[in-house]
Structure formats: C-alpha cells, structure tokens
Design brief:
The protein is of the alpha/beta class. It has 14 helices and 19 strands. The structure holds iron/sulfur cluster.
Length: 439
C-alpha cells in the first residue's frame, strides 16, 4: 500500500481541504503518514496570497524535494501557488511530478492513483466538500468551510483570482457534515470562508448565514459555534438576532475591517461606513467580543489616517486586532497606486497600532478580573522541576491560533478536550491567567 503525506500551508481553509484530500486518498486505499521520510507520495498544499506566504510555500517545496533526492518520493504541489504561478511552476520546480491549482484538487488522488498526470491542471476554485475527511487535530475543535471564493474586489487582494467567484455549500450538506463531526466528538465548530457573512446569496438569492447558524445550533454536542471572516457590510439584523437566540453560538465574531479612515478604505475598495457598522453591532450586542484585522502602510495612508484608526480602536470596540504591514503584490491593483509607502514606515505604524490595542486588551481583561470563565483544555504537560502540570486552553472569546490562551498551573493532570471553570487573575501578553478550585 502506498503511503501519502499531505503538508498543509496557509489558512484554515487550506487545512480543511488537506483533511478532505487525506480522506479521499484513504478511500482509494492509500495509507496516510505524517512522516515525509517514509512516504511514497507527498502533496504540498500551498498558499500564495502575500509575498511571505509565497516564500514559505516555495521553501516547503524545496525541503520536500531534498527528501525526494534521498528516497525517490513522488512530489505533487497543489493550491494557491500553482494557481498564481501557472505553468511557471514547471520551470521553477522541474523535479516535481505534477501540480494542480485550487479548483482541481479533488482530481489529484485519482490522477496519482492512475499515474495519469499530464503535469498540470489549473482552474480557480476549491475542494469545498467531501464525504471523506481525516481531521488533522485530536482536539474536539475543528473548522467548517461553508463557502469558497470571493465576490469582493479589495484592491490589495489577489484571492478572487486564486479562488474564483463566491461558491456556497448547501445548508443540508453543511448540517450533515456538522452532525457527523459532532457524533465523532467535536464540541467546537469554527465557520470559515473568505467572507462567511455573504453565505448563501449565490445559491439561495439572499444571505442565509442566519439560517445555517440556527440549524447548526440545534445539533447535539456542539457546545461552541464560532464565526470567523465576517465582512462588515453583510452583517445584517437577522444575523445579529441569531447571536442573541442561541447560547452555543459564541458571543464572539472575527470581522476584518482592514482600516477605518475613509481615505484609505476608498483606496482599498472597502465599505466606507465600516465605523458605523461596528458601532451598530456593539450597540445591538454590547457584550460580543470582536476581533479584527488591520493593514498599515497602505498606499496613500498618512499620519492623520493612522491617528484616526488608533483613536477608533481606543474606544474599545475590539478585544483582538491582528495588524499586518501592507504587502505590495504586483498581481494586485493596489500595486499600481501612487504614494506607495516604505516598508519600514508600514512596520512602524504596525507597532504603534499594536501597542495602542494592547492597552485596550489589558484594560478589558482587568475589568473582568475575579470573574469565573469556562474554558476548554488543549494541552497538559508535567513540569520536571516540581511535577506540577502546565495547562493551556481557550475560553469562548479565544479562537485557535490567533487569540492567545487560558493558562495555569495544576497539581493534577487535566483531560484535553474537557471543559473546566477558572477565576481570571490577570494576563501575560495575550494569555489569560486563571486559578481553578482543587480538582
Ligand atoms: S473580502 Fe477578503 S478575500 Fe475577498 S477580496 Fe476582500 S480581502 Fe480578499
């Protein structure tokens, strides 16, 4: 039996696709391995939406090709890098055995099985569903990709060209998958897409995320349903109402705004009324915890734009802000804009915004010190020094990988995937320190 290893790079959407791919490989009789050295076949599922991601993908391909030199492993590349580079892939990596883009991923296992590869298959899109899936984490938390592609035209972004137009999955197929995940012990389901809040408009003629969330909230065993990648102008009243209706929809939303100054938002081709949308959400859901993403150093951004952004953030709408310095992609329309800003200035502004946001975060957590908070345990490791256990976990307002952890020391080991209560005592960076009663 041939052994296959899949390396997933980039965003959680790629993680889900890699899990579907592993499921399809297994259904065709391949054995799955995480160890490239022992694999007969390796697939590198890549990312290329900004320069650093592209470089990381190229580095991963070279590292796997160095294994090929030793053991003759067959190497295939998939996803956003081949979709971006197209047939330049062959000249850049002549040693690879084949590559597919984003829309032809599901054909890869069959082509490898039949050894019928004609070197490239490139079409934008995504592997949006599969009855086969091999989860890459043992934790009871996973992602559900509800749609692929994007209909927006943000001037700095090349994702629509890599992933094609917006394509929702049906509510039935999503609920079926969510039920099977819950039946297999998943307690936290994290909804993802390029833009989750436009879900359904392409297949139902109207935004239908509220309907999907209502159905998912009724599935037994799902304790936390979390929404990431909301798009400001498609957060409507019926979606806000669903957050109030269901206790197991986390009172948390990731809603990238990218900036707040109208001067910058218009150059980004993003909603100019972003500030009033955020104010509306916080007025209707005062206790919701918001996360956002910001780009600093966008062409044409000036000091007063940054000051306007910082004063908006200091009003405390967001608990978490991921800040990124502008990455000039030659394939993106924004690369043609005048007043490009030096990368060093973009990074200076990034640090300014991060520091301002950290004070907001700290004061928010200080204001709930002493409160009890429920959290899921994700890791428990014993200290050699005194035999005590370092425990890390997450609470309802911490998404995986991006919002820090709940941390504490325990005399006894705690079971990963279980929920516990603790009292908030403070912060360390973005981690929240708690104490728990004797267990
Ligand atoms: S909404 Fe997101 S994925 Fe779509 S174009 Fe804008 S930044 Fe890119």
């Amino acid at each position: 039996m041939q052994k296959v290893a899949v390396v997933a790079l980039g965003c959680p959407k790629n993680t889900v696709e890699a899990e579907y791919l592993l499921g399809i490989f297994r259904s065709k009789g391949f054995e799955i391995t995480n160890n490239i050295e022992e694999a007969d076949i390796s697939v590198i599922h890549t990312c290329s939406f900004i320069k650093t991601a592209k470089e990381e993908s190229e580095k991963a391909i070279r590292s796997v090709l160095s294994v090929k030199k030793k053991n003759g492993l067959r190497v295939y590349v998939s996803g956003c890098l081949p979709q971006l580079l197209q047939n330049k892939m062959s000249s850049m990596f002549p040693e690879i055995d084949g590559y597919v883009g984003t829309g032809t991923l599901k054909e890869l296992p069959q082509l490898i099985f039949n050894k019928g590869f004609d070197k490239s298959l490139l079409a934008p899109g995504g592997l949006n569903e599969s009855k086969y899936r091999v989860l890459s984490s043992s934790l009871p938390s996973t992602y559900l990709k509800i749609a692929e592609g994007c209909w927006h035209k943000c001037s700095f972004c090349i994702i629509p060209s890599l992933r094609g137009n917006y394509e929702s999955r049906s509510i039935k197929s999503l609920v079926d998958e969510a039920k099977s995940l819950a039946d297999n012990g998943i307690k936290e389901l994290i909804l993802i897409a390029q833009d989750t809040t436009s879900y359904g408009y392409d297949i139902y003629g109207a935004f239908a995320l509220d309907k999907l969330l209502s159905k998912l909230a009724k599935i037994n065993g799902l304790k936390w349903i979390r929404l990431l990648y909301a798009y400001p102008s498609s957060v409507n009243d019926s979606l806000i109402a669903v957050f109030k209706e269901h206790k197991n929809i986390c009172n948390y939303m990731d809603i990238p705004i990218q900036h707040i100054s109208k001067n910058v938002l218009s150059a980004m081709r993003r909603p100019l009324n972003t500030a009033s949308i955020i104010e509306k959400i916080k007025n209707k859901l005062p206790d919701i915890i918001l996360r956002t993403s910001i780009i600093t150093g966008f062409p044409g951004e000036n000091k007063s734009d940054i000051n306007e952004l910082i004063s908006f953030l200091e009003q405390g709408y967001f608990q978490y802000v991921g800040v990124f310095e502008y990455s000039n992609q030659k394939e993106a329309d924004s690369s043609k804009l005048k007043k490009q800003i030096k990368n060093s200035v973009a990074i200076e502004r990034k640090i300014l915004v991060e520091n301002a946001q950290y004070s907001v975060f700290k004061s928010k957590i200080d204001s709930i010190k002493g409160n009890n908070i429920e959290f899921i345990v994700e890791n428990c490791s014993q200290r050699a020094s005194d035999g005590k256990y370092n425990i890390t976990g997450r609470c309802y307002f911490q998404a995986p990988e991006i919002d820090g952890h709940v941390t504490f020391l325990s005399n006894n080991p705690l079971k990963s995937g279980e929920f516990y209560n603790g009292k908030i005592t403070g912060v360390k960076g973005y981690n929240i320190k708690v104490t728990i009663g004797e267990i």
